[in-house]
Amino acid sequence: MKFISKMAFLCGIGWGVMMHSQTVNQLINEKGAFRKDTIFIIKSDLKETYLPVTIIKGKEKGPVFSIVAGVHGYEYPPIIAVQELLKEIKQENVKGTLIIVPIANVEAFQKRTPFINPLDQKNLNTAFPGSANGTVTDQIANIITKEIISNSTIFLDIHGGDANEDLLPFVCYYNRKDIPENTKLAHDLSAQSQINYIVSYPYNITQAEPAKYAFKQATQQGVTALSIEAGKLGTVQKENVEMIKNAVYNMLEYSGNYVKSKAKIKNNNKPILLNQQDYIKVPVEGIFYSDFKSGDPVKKNQVVGFITDEFGKKKEDIISNSDGIILYKVGTPPVNKGETLFCIGYTQQ
């Protein structure tokens, strides 16, 4: 059966009350198999938004696998992929529990706003762990931290290239060496995804430092966490939607959360692990030109683009600092000083 309920989080300045008695933890511990669609209402300083959450519980016990899309509301392939998954996933085939956030940043999605929430101009992707008494973005991060991540065995954050980002599909995780079993499971799930590139990020924060990113927050909390990156330039590409869905089904089967799913799309290529990243920052504001695209190989000291002023005069060449492959880059002409222009991935033995 399908239920719809509301959970209201009224969190104005200096006060916060959860108006609904049930938490996600209480819901997932209810007896029996079910699907429930839940809305968290969020208010702050006369601004209001909501966080949609679906909980699908199977008859048999199993892990709690959480899936979040739409942390950036302009990254459409992850959002559309999760919409299709919500329609396709059969409750009777679920083992354990699925917690799904179909659109984490509803306002950015509805207002077609890249990167930030238009209600408070904050980037949800750098807001974790969030705050119960902050602005709406802080509160969304806090709910995901307290209600979703804290109840998860496995946490999957799905992203893509935003409005200006040309991105190569990859799956990634943090290499937290003090919990090697979580890192191994994250790697194994990444390999099961059938996505060609796996990126391992260094994990070097303390327990007291803010994690900023959702799946890094999950990693910090000791949850097995990873992220899919697929889609680019603020459009829906059917092939990337299908890639994300196939990856999720493969991960769910491997984790034991789903059986009798759609047939796997076989990929006979061994995934390529990239365990180092080189970030090229925009040195000066201007108009960016490059013949390179995501997925292209680059060499150390190679010129990969240049920036001009408004009169077409070249201001600076952009030079790669390493041999590697372009994971993502700015794919539109305007650039601002300090932004990430290229992310080059490579392997270090």
Description:
This protein is an alpha/beta fold and 349 residues long. The protein folds into 2 domains: 52-255, Aminopeptidase (3-Layer(aba) Sandwich), CATH 3.40.630.10; 279-346, RNA polymerase II/Efflux pump adaptor protein, barrel-sandwich hybrid domain (OB fold (Dihydrolipoamide Acetyltransferase, E2P), Beta Barrel). Helix content is 21%, strand content 34%. It is built from 7 helices and 20 strands. The strands form 3 sheets. An 11-stranded mixed sheet has the order 2-1-3-4-6-5-7-11-9-10-12, with helices on both faces. Strands 8, 13, 15, 18 and 20 form a 5-stranded antiparallel sheet that branches. Strands 17-16-14-19 form a 4-stranded antiparallel sheet, with no helix packed on it. The model is unreliable at 1-21 (pLDDT under 50).
Shape: globular
Radius of gyration: 20 Å
CATH architecture of the largest domain: 3-Layer(aba) Sandwich
Q: What is the CATH topology assignment of the largest domain?
A: Aminopeptidase
Q: How many E strands?
A: 20
The number of helices is: 7
Roughly how much helix do the residues carry, as a percent range?
10-25%
Top CATH class of the largest domain? Alpha Beta
Q: Hey, roughly how much beta strand do the residues contain?
A: 25-35%
- Topology order in helix (H) and strand (E) letters: EEHEEEHEHHEEEHEHEHEEEEEEEEE
Biggest sheet statistics: 11 strands, mixed
Distance between the termini: 51 Å
Q: Which superfamily, in CATH terms, is the homologous superfamily of the largest domain?
A: Zn peptidases
State the strand order across the main sheet: 2-1-3-4-6-5-7-11-9-10-12
Structural category is alpha/beta
Task: Report the average pLDDT across residues.
Answer: 92
Query: Uncertain spans, ≥5 residues at pLDDT below 50?
Result: 1-21
Q: How many distinct domains?
A: 2
